[in-house]
Design brief:
Shape: globular
Number of domains: 3
Helix content: 40-55%
Distance between the termini: 50 Å
CATH superfamily of the largest domain: Type I PLP-dependent aspartate aminotransferase-like (Major domain)
CATH architecture of the largest domain: 3-Layer(aba) Sandwich
Structural class: alpha/beta
Strand order of the largest sheet: 4-11-10-9-8-5-6-7
Number of helices: 18
Strand content: 5-15%
Length: 502
């Protein structure tokens, strides 16, 4: 440690030769902090570089480097033939820098409230962050993670390599803002056959995932303050997307038949958008009944509202054919259908799509005109080839069988290890299930106890915006092998017991 009892000491300067921060940086920060705190008054004479170098026991070049930087940034002024002084008209910002000589960006921030936030930003800050993420997948029981261990990695790699090797200049140029034409064609063909979606390729727009699709639709549909029906409990990303677009989220209860349309009509009859997952609601896993589907479509047609259909994982119906999409029943052109490949392929593939009603195609084209391609054109071309070659359809068939096996394994394990405390609800679609807490336990407490033991499970309470009507847990099983699921339920049983004792 280099210190001084002379002029440098009077300036409260301390340099640490053992620090990883260079000495000239330490001196720069030390003088800067003293100037901004007001300890070195405007116009005060600074000792000569020779004096400082002698007393601090450093090379004069070190001192000159620090002084030159302070002069360049306006903290000091130097006149030819005269001494160096603190800038005479420097505004004092007492809390601007720390008293120490470090340059940590986080500690240099002022202890103030910062710039004023918009109402939507303040609301976003208050949204629940949900279950803590405990590390990389696969992990019991993180929701939303597909079976990465079963993905045909080698086949995908060969497809990508072939597309890259044969890529034309058009693929390197950025591509069509609406998306790669062969991929739009492949998606239109796929969703028409598998989901009952009625569309042509011109209605398909490629997105960088579900959230970008939500953002794009809501920004075209909403004026500031417009009401949006969102499911309660529901996917937190829906709530965030509405807030980010300046809308007012209106939580609408979900029961065994899905979104309660009559409650929506009572709470916000003139809402501009209804954001729903009719085929497999998250997190409850229910399906919107036919009577409510028709009521929702009639409301949208009557009020000229938009329906944003989130079809995130209904490809994975464990038995029988996937349910027909709500969009397939829409005669008035009110439904925008949104799909993603993050769940059906792998999360790192940030590719999704939306299907716009015919009357809105021109609007979406205009919105995209000045925008870059939403995702890598080479990745889009690879995915188009993967679909066209039949690999995607084969992968989906394999995943349906795997998720049925893993879902049943989780149900058996929960009944064996957590009976009497948890009541699991069987699921027939997707990669997660929920379980109600039979005992009077806080699901948030159980979630945290499980996290302490390395198990990641979501609390149902985190998905409610309005009054919490049920306490329970949400389990993801898609990315976890059956043996690991059983080990996870044994750990969870210990977490449940610990939560009961607290």
């Amino acid at each position: 440690m280099k210190t001084s009892n002379g002029v440098a000491s009077s300036l409260l300067l301390r340099l640490d030769s053992r620090s990883s921060t260079p000495l000239h940086e330490q001196l720069f920060e030390g003088l800067r902090a003293r100037i901004l705190s007001g300890a070195l008054a405007p116009g005060l004479r600074i000792p000569s570089s020779r004096q400082l170098a002698t007393e601090l026991d450093v090379a004069r070049s070190t001192v000159l480097q620090a002084l030159d930087a302070l002069i360049a940034e306006g903290y000091l002024v130097a006149r030819a033939g005269s001494c160096t002084r603190v800038a005479p008209e420097l505004p004092l910002l007492a809390a601007d820098v720390p008293r120490s000589g470090t340059r940590s960006p986080s500690t240099r921030l002022r202890a103030s409230r910062g710039p004023r936030l918009a109402d939507a930003a303040r609301a976003l800050k208050s949204t629940s962050s949900g279950a803590p993420r405990l590390g990389a997948a696969p992990r019991a029981f993180r929701p939303g993670v597909p079976a990465l261990d079963l993905f045909p990695t080698a086949r995908w790699a060969r497809t990508v390599s072939r597309v890259h090797a044969r890529a034309s200049m058009g693929l390197f140029d950025g591509g069509d803002p609406s998306g790669h034409a062969p991929l739009r064609e492949a998606i239109a063909s796929h969703v028409s056959a598998s989901r009952g979606v009625r569309c042509v390729p011109e209605q398909v727009f490629i997105t960088a995932g579900t959230q970008q699709a939500f953002d794009e639709v809501l920004r075209l549909a909403l004026n500031p303050g417009d009401s949006v029906w969102i499911e309660d409990p529901g996917y937190p990303g829906s709530h965030r997307a509405v807030l980010a677009a300046g809308g007012r989220p209106v939580p609408i209860p979900v029961d065994g038949e899905g979104l309660d349309v009559s409650a929506g009509l009572a709470r916000a009859p003139r809402a501009r958008v209804a954001l729903v997952a009719p085929s497999h609601q998250y997190p409850l896993g229910v399906t919107l009944s036919l009577s409510r589907r028709m009521a929702l479509l009639q409301w949208a047609e009557r009020t000229r509202a938009w329906i944003l259909e989130d079809d995130y994982d209904s490809e994975f119906r464990h038995r029988g054919r996937p349910l027909t999409a709500l969009q397939g029943l829409d005669e008035a052109g009110c439904v925008v259908y949104v799909g993603t490949f993050s769940k059906s392929m792998f999360p790192g593939l940030r590719l999704g799509f939306l299907v716009a009603p015919p009357s809105l195609v021109d609007v979406f084209c205009a919105a995209r005109a000045a925008a870059p391609s939403p995702a890598s054109t080479l990745e889009q071309a690879a995915l188009a080839a993967f679909l066209a070659d039949g690999h995607f359809a084969r992968h989906l068939r394999r995943m349906r069988a795997a998720y049925r096996e893993r879902g049943e394994a989780l149900l058996d394990a929960l009944r064996a290890d957590c009976s009497g405390v948890l009541v699991p609800r069987p699921c027939d679609t997707g990669m997660q299930l929920r379980a109600s807490l039979a005992a009077p336990l806080s699901d948030l407490r159980v979630r945290d106890e499980a996290a302490r033991r390395g198990v990641e499970v979501a609390a149902l309470s985190d998905y409610f915006l309005g009054r919490r009507r049920e306490s329970g847990l949400v389990f993801g099983f898609g990315g976890v092998r059956p043996d690991a699921l059983r080990e996870g339920t044994r750990i969870l049983a210990r977490a449940l017991e610990a939560a009961r004792r607290r």
